[in-house]
Amino acid sequence: MLFNSLEFLIFFPVVTLLFFLIPHSWRSFHLLVASCIFYMAFIPVYILILFFTIIIDYVAGIMIAKASGRKRKYYLVMSLIANIGVLSIFKYFNFFIDNINTLFHIAHLTTYSLPFLNIILPIGLSFHTFQAMSYTIEVYRGHQQPEKNFVTYALYVMFYPQLVAGPIERPQNIIHQLHEKKRFDYYEATEGLKMMMWGMFKKVVIADRLAKVTSPVFNDAHHYSPTALLLAAFFFSFQIYCDFSGYSDIAIGAARVMGIKLMTNFNKPYRSKNVAEFWRRWHISLSTWFRDYLYISLGGNRVSVPRWYFNLFFVFLVSGFWHGANWTFVVWGALHGFYLIFAIVTQKMRARLNHLTLLDRHPRLLGVLQMITTFCLVLVAWVFFRANTIHDAFYILGRFPVALADIGHWLIRAHFSTESFKSLIGFMPVFVIDIQLSFLLIALLQGIEWVQTHKDLSALIRQRPIYIRWTLYYLMIAVIIFLGVYENRQFIYFQF
Fold it and tell me: What is the per-residue pLDDT for 6?
């Protein structure tokens, strides 16, 4: 079930209303049933896969707590193998088979060809798999007591707001909340609804509008001008941000209405001044997952310098592979790993350069330049993330210098009419007015985030008179209704 669907518009208020009306002892079961219905709206039979791993991890958690010595590790490994095994079969099996068959073809062993599995990737498999793994790891480490109530544990994995695209929660944050008796809180409910409204705005008004440009251009890159390719890459950077952070806002808001607090998953990532900061702000639940369970386990930065670089690069390589069974995602992850290592190696040299150019005396200007540079680096990486193939990604990036030259000439001529703009970008799958509106919406988003950086915007709105507050709310609803793109577009991260 999509958040941006009519079904969810009915599902959410019904489930929430019943949550507060029924006795506390039945609420976890009620939410579990609702979560099953939510998940089965996609491919019903795949609920069996989810319950298979839930049962294994539930038993493993109890056995880990009871066991001692090497047996504890045995039960942990059993749980991890089950989770990674399911993930490997459904998400990566055909990827490996395809690459093996390619090697056979290169070696002229055409008589050898391994068969593919005719399966569809279950929605959100990587998300709830990682959430389940965090539970058994935390029980093994002694940071979490095993959950004896099966319904509560199953709900921890399946809680519908964050079931298919996160945030990837930790048991310490969620399980105790599922035991607490929640009372309706007007403040929490209204704040949650406002978060959901803001998330829906980012999804249907901005992200889905940008998708009308990015999808056709990236899917047929060779038929568009260099400027159109650069524009599509720029738009995709904001499309994926608004799409994914919009989902997170709706998920966090829906849970908050019921008094359940999920972790923050985004924190204005495009205001980052370096790539390391970007990853502290982008998909926070995943980046901290890899930090706590993989990076630190490998030794983190408490090792020799070459090993430290390896740890960084390996973690981002795995992160790329986590996102999808395609070499484009692997390159995307590797590129971010390279960015981080390059930043460490050149740190002193960049500090001296800033001193020589006197930029260190103008911190605001330096900060702006750093944000622009970071955004450009991230944009280049997004091209690999979105492109259908490695070849397409390199073709698109190879056209960027031509696009920048064309834009430079256009700016020098200073002919900013609609006709000159159409001539600059060439054929596009949408009208110029749609592109202009897209730029306006991106500017609005960045302006709002700039205000949020310096002030609590929600608190400012609460301080206004009631007629101003409700005027803003109704205006936002009107914008979502009349400017939203309703083509049943799935959230991008559902595929992961």
Answer: 85
